[in-house]
Amino acid sequence: MLRGEASATRLWERRRGGGACRPRAFAAPLVQVVIAALCAPAARGQAVDVADLVYPPHAEVHGKTLMEWGAEWWRWILGIESTANPVRDFTGARCGLGQGGPVFFLAGTDISGSFQRACTVPAGREIFFPLSNAVGGAGPGEPEDCEFWRRQVEDYMNAVCELSCELDGQAIRGLGDHREQSSCFEVILPANNLFIPESICLRTAVADGYWLMLKPLSAGKHQLKWAGKICGQNPQGGDMTFELTVGEPAAPPSFSRGDSNGDGKVNLSDAVGSLNYLFLGGASPACPDAADSQDDGKLDIADPVYLLNWLFLGGCVLAWPPPGSCGSDPHEDALPECSASCP
To answer: What confidence score (pLDDT) does residue 44 get?
Structure first.
């Protein structure tokens, strides 16, 4: 079993308590991935009505429910290799890596302690982050039992005993109502991901946690703190503070992986267009990064084959941002940056 919780260790080592999002990797046949965004209680402030700052539980934002945005958050964070991953960014310099959609994600950290990050958020975007969260799923060749993984993450999140959040010194009430559990979803982890050196496809993943979707903030400076605590035999905690600047930074290129012709859809015509370009002298893809289905930094026969396999033969989902998502390429490569229509 491969498993991540709140501190990094191995199966034969003694477990240690730790800070937010600190993964624990266990090696055995069955695959489970769990990360918790755990933080110590934030400082007390004047309580404000959640409705003034935050979307209500189970709300729909930009065509997705909050539980669907929870799955999107996991696709984003698990789709970035460990050395560049925002959870291992001590300054906030990589907070926007891989982003480009209408909702801006914030991540915790996988190292215990107190952390403060500075992050620039484009004006007019909602901000989505976990107070405490977990994900579980089966790897290749393992039982794809959605309900099993649902019970695992549900039991884990049932141990949450404290939640708090402040925005600009004002405490937000009603956090216990903001628990969201996703439907089953699929996600691919790149090589050198947060857990193991190999790329892995989680066929049946389920996310559970307490999430907040902030309404767009006014331009200027804001301070965001959040907190969550797991109680029980292995209590865990840490703390996270974001110094946010809401402004108008250059919008990153955004696309959906596989949409090589840039028409906002991922279908057979994208694979045909790539094959035509590769072998018949056809026009180059409208968005080369989108045509790079495997996100290996080059365009070759493997990309349309991978796309066709996903479209028609039950192959693994494409790399971040997959069809139905909107983001930018989180990995540096020789392909030119590009934008295309996306959700």
So the answer is: 43
